[in-house]
Amino acid sequence: NKQIEVFDEKEASKKWESYFKLVDIKDNSNYKKLFYTALMFAIKKPYIYDENDVYDFATMWDIYKTLLPLIFLLYKKEASIIANNFLKMVNENGQFYHVRLFSSNKPYLSDQAICLMNIALSTAALYGVKFDLKKAKELQKREIEYYLKHLNQLDRTTYLLDLADAIVAYYNAYHIDLGLDKAKQLINNKGKRLELVVETEHI
Question: Fewest CB within a 10 Å sphere: which of 38, 81, 120, 172?
Answer without folding.
Answer: 38
